[in-house]
Amino acid sequence: MSTIVTGASGHLGRLVAEELLERSPASELVLVTRHPEALQDLTARGATVRHGDFDAPHTLPAAFAGGEQMLLISTLAVGRRVAQHQAAIEAAVAAGVEHVVYTSFLNPVPRHPVGPVATEHGQTEDILRATKVSWTILRNATFAELQVQPGALAVAGGKLYTNAGNGRLGYVSRHDVARVAATVLTTDGHEEQTYDVTSGEAISQSELVDLLSEVSGRAVKLIQLGDRVLTWGLTRNGAPKPVAKAIAAFGRAIREGYYEVVDPAATAITGQSPTTLRDVLIAHRGDLLTYT
């Protein structure tokens, strides 16, 4: 079965492509990207690489031609991506794609504290469910790898500033998400299913500083702040105001339980236990010490 992967030159897209190359013939894999030159190594392995740009919908019919199923990896273009995703879904339907798998977000509900970062995924889900193709939605937890850079800053300064209170944050590694996506694309029984893709734990900020201290070998202290004080402190230290507000909104969402999700779906789908945040931090220990 011919499988399309969009955003194939990104972090997640490349990992999914690698997983699919281990499970199915390369001749059945179509990798769509704005940067085909970045995937020359996968072309050499037999995959088809095509240019496609969601902001240029006229490029998508040729990019999706002949595809039977598609992994639609959500874009990072907050404010534009609902239109981008809709253009991709419509082009896939027109090209004869029969099944679309979409990478979404935990709890993409109205009034989510992070706003369109979450709600645009919910809008895309609604668009996908309204089409005539079968669909699967993967609501991914926060990528564990994204904790490395802020963790490095906390390690360097010896303090982790947060407004998350006692809230817990569920993580998942990109490798586990790629494994789940590839399994969904190569096994039966996933049509019209919505999965929360998480690891087996949700971590408090107190537990996070303990992990950072353990893995880095340097003491990290937890500093709890209110929303306004955190926003003020971030802007005072050079963060643009929209960035500071977004970080505070993320902390509020953790505090209010939007990310406290632990689900067995990843294990049930792949037959493997997900990677822990601790394991991801250990794998990136050198990066945690970048600023020390």
Quick tags:
NmrA-type_oxidoreductase, alpha/beta, single chain, 292 residues, NAD(P)H dehydrogenase (Quinone), Rossmann fold, 2 domains, three-stranded mixed sheet
Indicate the topology.
Blueprint: E1 3-5, H1 11-23, E2 29-33, H2 40-44, E3 48-51, H3 60-64, E4 69-72, H4 81-95, E5 99-105, H5 116-129, E6 134-140, E7 142-143, H6 148-157, E8 159-162, E9 168-172, H7 174-186, E10 193-197, E11 202-204, H8 205-216, E12 221-224, H9 227-236, H10 241-255, H11 265-270, H12 277-283, H13 285-288
Parallel strand pairs: 1-2, 1-4, 2-3, 4-5, 5-6, 6-10, 7-9, 8-12
Antiparallel strand pairs: 9-11
Helix pairs in contact: 1-7, 4-5, 9-10
Kindly give the count of domains: 2
Report the major sheet: 7 strands, parallel
Low-confidence stretches: none
In round numbers, the mean pLDDT is 97
- What is the CATH homology-level superfamily of the largest domain? NAD(P)-binding Rossmann-like Domain
| Strand line-up across the major sheet | 3-2-1-4-5-6-10
* Strand and helix order: EHEHEHEHEHEEHEEHEEHEHHHHH
Number of helices: 13
Quick one: overall form?
Answer: globular
InterPro entries: NAD(P)-bd_dom, NAD(P)-bd_dom_sf, NmrA-type_oxidoreductase
Protein name: NAD(P)H dehydrogenase (Quinone)
Pfam family, one: NAD_binding_10
